[in-house]
Design goal:
Rossmann fold; six-stranded mixed beta sheet
Length: 345
């Protein structure tokens, strides 16, 4: 299990995490800041200079998950992680990666009053930088607190909130330990199927509205939008698997077996194994059908109909190429064979 202690800068995450490891038998302190140091040595400076925060690097998010899984395999017990994560899609990606390894996460938010945070941040800035640092280069409390304030709606909805403004780190840790013991700090609801250990066969469905816009869904467990669909189970017909996934993901029961639009071979790109990706034409959804779209809160955050141009802004590059050729196949009433997103034959 993982206890992830979230919060703004100077919320008391690290000191609380150390105290919590004393209260939970067999627990281990794990600070993903160590991953930031490793990434600084691994990536070319040009790539590092493209971002202002290591969290914006996909490799950082992947390594945080991989290191956590490796640590748990090595030492067992509970990992206590103090780390600010204010972007919901990054939280989704990291917690989804942990869920895929069957690692439950207890998400805790330390939320002292903003006045207290401002005072702590100002004291921290003076302590770390010294009074001689030019004001123009010193970040203000507002610089740190604005993104935190913007993230509060989803943070408070997702995490167990502890107001530690008047608490010591030990008292805060005791509150967290009790919340975990009683179940008040429940497991994060993000779920994901186990990561594949070999090539996979996946089936997606394109559904259209009356304006021929395509329906996309926003998964909680990985970055970027997607088509309804998923991995074909062993012994399952791919088209039927696509129908099953549509019903499970958005609550729509297709009244006919969808027609195949394309087959795309996705090459292995470690750590991914690749495999075959099929896209089917699920036809048009009338306005009454669209109104029946339901989302399982643990897996999907949203859905929308988009044009091809809008889809390019939402889909990862490989998925967009797949969509573009699927739309061409639909226009021509044909089936296309792709390799890595490029038609062949």
């Amino acid at each position: 299990m993982i206890v992830w202690i979230n919060g703004a800068l100077s919320a008391g995450k690290t000191s609380t995490a150390h105290e919590l490891t004393d209260l939970i038998p067999g627990s281990t302190f794990y600070d993903p800041a160590a991953i930031s140091g490793a990434v600084s040595h691994l990536l070319p400076k040009k790539r590092l200079n493209e971002v202002s925060d290591h969290q914006d690097l996909p490799v950082w998010r992947r390594l945080v998950v991989d290191a956590a899984a490796a640590l748990l395999a090595e030492v067992g017990g509970v990992l206590v992680i103090p780390m600010t994560v204010l972007r919901q899609d990054y939280r989704d990606e990291i917690f989804g990666g942990l869920a895929s390894r069957r690692i439950p996460v207890r998400h805790v938010l330390l939320a002292p009053d903003e006045t207290i945070l401002q005072q702590r941040i100002m004291a921290r800035e003076e302590c770390e930088d010294g009074p001689g640092r030019r004001a123009a280069t010193r970040r203000t409390p507002r610089d740190h607190l604005t993104p935190y304030r913007q993230a509060l709606p989803w943070l408070t909805a997702d995490a167990h909130v502890v107001d530690n403004g008047s608490l010591t780190p030990r008292e805060t840790a005791e509150r967290i330990a009790e919340a975990i013991r009683t179940g008040a700090a429940g497991a994060c609801e993000i779920v994901q199927t186990p990561e594949p250990t070999a090539e996979t066969l996946a089936a997606g469905v394109l559904l259209f509205d009356e304006q021929d816009r395509v329906l996309l869904v926003d998964p909680t467990y990985k970055p970027g939008w997607e088509f309804p669909g998923g991995v074909v189970e062993r012994g399952e017909p791919p088209a039927r698997a696509a129908m099953r996934e549509v019903a499970e993901e958005i609550g729509i029961e297709l009244d006919r077996v969808p027609g195949l639009l394309l087959v795309d071979w996705e090459p292995p790109r470690p750590p991914a194994f690749g495999g075959l990706r099929l896209l089917f034409d699920g036809g048009r959804l009338g306005s009454s059908s669209a109104e029946r779209v339901l989302l399982p809160g643990a897996e999907l955050r949203g859905w929308r109909f988009v044009s091809e141009t809008e889809a390019e802004e939402l889909l990862p590059e490989a998925r967009f190429h797949r969509l573009r050729w699927a739309l061409r196949a639909r226009e021509r009433s044909t089936v296309l064979n792709l390799e890595a997103g490029v038609p062949v034959g």
